């Protein structure tokens, strides 16, 4: 499936701030089931973009706006082609639990086996596990257990924006019995890790056909789901918000231990003004892929009636850095 994604982030300040420094996790990943056709960032006020690959392999862009401003707008545009994952078996043998306990898997998945940040055990989570008999699911193989856990979380919680915030602990969703995709992902990750099943947080987008209306997710927002590691299958995606497997409608952007590792944007500013954040997301089907990958060309500067905007088309600068490192290693 071909998708065009537009992700707009606006920061409004009550009074001009002296400087803003920002990091962005907005570039879709490249994988066996996802092809990045183009990626473009547009900043207002204009700023020079830099990039690096974080410890999880995500592309991170950062910039500095060193002059006074009362508004900061970030527009990310992507064109992505996705494919359906390979069909999964109905179940795995129970020996998969033993393979998960091997020293190799324990080392390879170390970061995704330990509690971290929002994905951690709390007394309220332990009570939820006991009430729902969740630990009984471990009598199944890990794949079947993960399927069943996703179903339990889907049935136990209502999807309702506004109950929790981006930095809310899982106890808030557990207390109210409702929340959003980020909360459900953190709960599932914490439980899986408690089982010894490596699990990681995936940020991205979900294409939702408004005519069908089967998804609980907000079609105008970013999305989050879970990937669990199974030695026989590698990373497998589960979406507990909608009780579905990650599929061609999911566009992955970044992976981490929890939300705090991969927020769409994060930054600081110099000043004492109050700030407001507004975010808008659009994911729509594209009719055809670009004839030539746009990130191989640098777009010409676009000018509005006001100050010029900086528009940068890239695969990313991260890929250029990786290629340069490989060339140096070969010399």
Written description of the protein model:
The chain is of the alpha+beta class and 331 residues long. It has helices at 95-100, 103-108, 123-132, 142-156, 170-176, 181-194, 317-330, and strands spanning 2-17, 19-24, 34-44, 50-53, 59-65, 69-82, 158-159, 178-179, 199-206, 223-230, 234-239, 244-245, 250-256, 265-270, 275-285, 310-313. A hairpin with a 4-residue loop joins strand 11 (234-239) and strand 12 (244-245). Helix 4 (142-156) packs antiparallel against helix 6. It is globular, with a radius of gyration of 21 Å.
List the topology elements.
Layout: E1 2-17, E2 19-24, E3 34-44, E4 50-53, E5 59-65, E6 69-82, H1 95-100, H2 103-108, H3 123-132, H4 142-156, E7 158-159, H5 170-176, E8 178-179, H6 181-194, E9 199-206, E10 223-230, E11 234-239, E12 244-245, E13 250-256, E14 265-270, E15 275-285, E16 310-313, H7 317-330
Helix pairs in contact: 4-6
Structural features:
5-stranded antiparallel β-sheet, alpha+beta, 331 residues, globular, 16 strands, disordered C terminus
Number of helices: 7
Number of strands: 16
**Multimeric state:** single chain
Euclidean distance between termini CA atoms: 40 Å
Structural class: alpha+beta
- Record the strand order, biggest sheet: 15-1-6-3-16
Percentage of residues in DSSP E strands: 25-35%
Question: Main β-sheet, in a few words?
Answer: 5 strands, antiparallel
What does the overall shape look like? globular
Low-confidence stretches: 295-313, 322-331
Mean pLDDT: 89
Amount of helix: 10-25%
Helix-strand string: EEEEEEHHHHEHEHEEEEEEEEH
Please compute the radius of gyration using only Cα atoms.
Answer: 21 Å
């Amino acid at each position: 499936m071909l998708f065009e994604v537009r992700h707009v982030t606006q920061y409004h300040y009550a009074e001009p701030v002296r400087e803003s420094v920002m990091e962005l996790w907005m570039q879709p990943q490249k994988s066996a089931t996802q092809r990045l056709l183009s990626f473009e960032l547009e900043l207002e006020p204009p700023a020079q973009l830099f990039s690096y690959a974080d410890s999880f392999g995500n592309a991170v862009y950062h910039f500095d706006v060193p002059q006074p401003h009362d508004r900061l707008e970030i527009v990310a545009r992507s064109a992505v082609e996705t494919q359906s994952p390979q069909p999964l078996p109905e179940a795995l043998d129970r020996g998969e639990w033993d393979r998960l306990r091997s020293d190799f898997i324990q080392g390879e998945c170390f970061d995704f086996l330990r509690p971290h940040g929002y994905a951690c055990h709390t007394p309220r989570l332990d009570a939820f596990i006991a009430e729902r008999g969740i630990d009984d699911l471990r009598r199944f193989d890990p794949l079947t257990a993960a399927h069943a856990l996703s179903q339990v979380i889907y049935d136990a919680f209502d999807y309702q924006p506004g109950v929790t915030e981006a930095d809310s602990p899982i106890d808030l969703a557990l207390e109210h019995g409702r929340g959003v995709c980020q909360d459900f992902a953190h709960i599932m990750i914490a439980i899986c890790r408690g089982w010894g099943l490596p699990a990681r947080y995936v940020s991205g987008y979900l294409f939702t056909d408004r005519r069908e209306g089967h998804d609980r997710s907000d079609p105008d927002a970013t999305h989050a789901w879970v990937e669990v590691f199974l030695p026989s299958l590698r990373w497998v995606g589960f979406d507990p918000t909608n009780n579905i497997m990650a599929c061609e409608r999911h566009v992955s952007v970044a992976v981490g231990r929890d939300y705090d590792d991969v927020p769409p944007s994060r930054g600081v500013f110099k000043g004492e003004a109050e700030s407001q954040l507004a975010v808008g997301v659009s994911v729509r089907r594209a009719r055809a892929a670009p004839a030539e990958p746009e990130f191989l060309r640098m777009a010409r500067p676009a000018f509005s009636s006001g100050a010029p905007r900086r528009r940068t088309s890239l695969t990313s600068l991260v890929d250029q850095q990786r290629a340069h490192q490989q060339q140096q290693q070969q010399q």
